[in-house]
Amino acid sequence: MPADVAPLKVANRPLLLVGVMAAMIMQTLDTTIANVALPHMAASLGATRDTITWVLTSYVLASAVMLPLAGWLVDRVGIRTMMLVSACLFTVASMLCGVAQSLEQMVFFRVLQGLAGAFLAPLAQTVMLDTSTAAERPKMMAIYTQGVMLGPISGPIIGGYLTDNFNWRWVFYVNLPVGLLCFALLWLYMPTTPRRERRIDLFGWLMIAIAVSALQLVLDRGEDRDWLASGEIVIEALVAASCAWLAVVHLATARAPLFPAALFRDRNFTVGLVFFGLMGLVMMSVMALLPTLLQQIYGYSPMQAGVLLAPRGVGMLLSVTVFGRFMNKVDPRILLSIGLALMALSLWLMAHWSIDMPRLPIVASGLIQGVGLSFSFMPVNMIAFATLSPRFRTDASGLTNLMRNLGSSIGIAGASVLLARNVQVNHAEIGSHLTPVLLPFAGDMHGTFAPLSGAVLGVIDAMVNQQAAMIGYLDDFLAMCLGCMAAIPLLLFVRIGPQTPTANAATIAAESAH
What we know:
Layout (H helix, E strand, L loop, with lengths): L12 H17 L8 H8 L8 H13 L3 H8 L1 H21 L3 H15 L2 H11 L6 H29 L4 H4 L1 H15 L12 H20 L9 H23 L7 H5 L1 H31 L4 H22 L8 H19 L9 H27 L6 H40 L12 H4 L1 H38 L17 H7 L3
Helix pairs in contact: 1-7, 1-8, 1-10, 3-6, 3-11, 3-18, 4-5, 5-6, 5-7, 5-10, 8-15, 8-21, 11-12, 11-18, 14-15, 14-17, 14-18, 14-20, 15-17, 16-17, 16-20, 17-21, 18-20
């Protein structure tokens, strides 16, 4: 097909692009919009501080499990059917999340939401590429990337406003009008694409899905079940390890594996997968921890917490806008090292927060982290795809998305486990140093004013809990900072080869964005 002709002909491209962009933004919005409502959800659903994060991990995990099937499903049923079904099911699942009455129901409905939403962003990207000519694609991908960034920016603010002024359930109900608009525009303007028979490696996909799910159960339930002292956790860990091993052997030896073995022989791509997992881990872990920290430790309202989280998205959006101008002129290894260093710097600053401090450090660290994520996200796409054959890009994009979602899911669960463990340890250590001299009342006052002694000791215990939780958050931020710094030496294994003719920086970065 000539370069000046779009592969996919549509009757009204502007309205179709509005529909697919709205669907993509709706899906990315739900990765952050519920964060600031987590404390309110925990109180309403009877969940604890560490179990309420299942609302986030279940969504991300479900998306990760389904992503490898996107290409096969599109070939079998067509992109029109896939977009319509995904938008419809995502909207229905959002409404079910809004009416959930228990944590178990919420997690189940979030899984349904993640399964349906997994395809919206990749299919939106495919439609934008296929309805554009070669000359239009860089511009389209710039629009797409800015749309991807709109979720992290607007999600916390919208979620905070709805929680403050209505109810946490409205962070899910808000998807109804958007979902209906998407469905109507897609129904009217999305053309039917050809279908073709394609074999699917069900065994490989099943092994990956079971391994990822079992690992997530270990991370989510290990703290409550005392880890390997529990038979359940031992069984889940063995299942995760066994299925992961079977998946690796199968992918390396099968005639038609889920992911071509040639992908893993490309050193740049293999190293890039590590960075994709790391970025998903850091970005989503921080976004899961901060809303609770800002509301429970600092006392901000959900709306205020959402505004304080927005600078991360602003930093990403501004830097992406400027980034494309010199992206092709600088070694991506240098850019990625700068991005990782900025992310580490922001996390180091966060690891030195105190209970009493103004808002400026929160805003400053968020901006730095947003710029760092932008400087990491686009160069790692260039590195991963720099020496990869164009025929592997579809499968490579699915695998990179899987790694990023897997990193996000593991990061959220791991950060919650580390936080819960550190709070217990810190509470015991702080409590062991309390003496009558340090108490805010005379040592014998509890005997003189016995009726008040229980309340006074309760206040002291609350203060100890607050200090222990704050130290736990700081320990999490420091651990993520060290992880970013430890990843920089991996760039020594990266080689920069010649780019393929169609692989300019903007297109490569966008083609694997989702």
